[in-house]
Amino acid sequence: MPVIVTSLMLALGQLTGPKLWRILAKSVTLTALIVAVLGTGVWYGLDWILARAGLSDTLFAGSAGLRETASLVLSFIAIWLIWRIVAMAVIQFFAGEIIEAVETRYYPRAAQQARNLSLKQEWSVGLAASGRALLTNIIVLPFAILLLFTAIGPAILFWAVNALLLGRELQDMVWLRHCHTPDAPAPFSRSERFMLGGIVAALLLVPVANFLAPVLGAAAATHLLHRKRDNHAA
């Protein structure tokens, strides 16, 4: 646990630096644009579906307003669900810059040994992680609905599932750049992956903090990897 806290504190301290701040600005802008486009598409799509389902303007007085309100509310729920997937997919394409910024400042020897992933590899890793997240959250959704009566149950379920997913994503993001043999195990333990993923998953649910979470997570994962390797070597 102490190494997780230290890694997060170091990452948070570096967020105020110009390198990570520029990456943060680019990633947040791109994420917001993609989510806005998707959210608008969902809004119009839901409005069309509800109209075809019978909630048309001629059904009763005010039906059009009710349909538009329902579509808007559901689209905001959809945006809340897809923000994490889009944000982490976007950060995959800035991961190399984040990791390089952290390693250049704190772990210069490791920075010289890191390998750059090709664009094909970046796309492959990013799409695989996004697909895994989307499919898993869809599978979990019915169980979350069953837990609605508990009020907090759905939030805990989504948090736990995404903690597992994010822990793996963040680990792979860094480890793939330092793993020189395909079967070499990453130095993260399961509990460390879960804790790191859980913290980032929780931050992704908090307004404003959700903008910082992907960059903070990638930077913290970089610190965690190298601090674990250094401790192991010692």
TrEMBL record:
Keyword annotations of the record: Membrane, Transmembrane, Transmembrane helix
Listed transmembrane segments: 28-50, 70-95, 138-161, 194-219
Subcellular location: Membrane
InterPro entries: CysZ/EI24
Membrane topology: Multi-pass membrane protein
Main localization, broad class: membrane
Protein name: EI24 domain-containing protein
Naturally occurring in which organism (per UniProt): Altericroceibacterium spongiae
